[in-house]
């Protein structure tokens, strides 16, 4: 019985890999990785616009779209943020950054909508051959204050995250995060 189950699981894994290779969306999802090391190749405004459009295509409760996207290519501003944000040191080497900002007055769930937008941004960057990494701002008051002060973000807006973007330096391999035991079918 156990041997049959393992054979079935192996077959399903191979079938899934075959289907993934035929489905560019699933392939992009599974190839996405957090990139923290970048080349000095510039990222075009066209690519950044494409990435932000993908962010704006994210699901949003009651279509409130409580987000704004601050795109930065100013190397001096990025270097200064890199110095002050403990988990965004890679920003100094990135060619661009996108700060996903939410308006709590538009939706009490702004951070959820902005998180969905952030996932789309990361996937869009991957699909364009770019690297990116989600660095946290919200709910850290200290990090949010550093970003809002440095970039003159007005109230009531709050930065959810800062995403350094650039072309990856060297090959990067995505982590396999599939753990079959974490999937529960019909009951826990």
Task: Kindly describe this structure.
The chain is 43% helix and 14% strand. It has 188 residues and is an alpha+beta fold. It has 2 domains: 29 residues; 132 residues, NADH Oxidase (3-Layer(aba) Sandwich). The longest helix has 21 residues. The mean pLDDT is 93.
The major β-sheet equals: 5 strands, antiparallel
Number of strands: 5
Task: Give the helix level as a range of percent.
Answer: 40-55%
Order of H and E elements? HHHEHEHEEHE
Please name the fourth-level CATH homologous superfamily of the largest domain.
Answer: NADH Oxidase
- Report the β-strand fraction as a percent range: 5-15%
As for the CATH topology of the largest domain, it is NADH Oxidase
Low-confidence stretches: none
Overall CATH class of the largest domain: Alpha Beta
Assign the CATH architecture of the largest domain.
Answer: 3-Layer(aba) Sandwich
Shape: globular
Helix/strand class: alpha+beta
Number of domains: 2
How many helices in DSSP terms? 6
Radius of gyration from the CA trace? 19 Å
* Distance, first to last CA: 22 Å
Average pLDDT level = 93
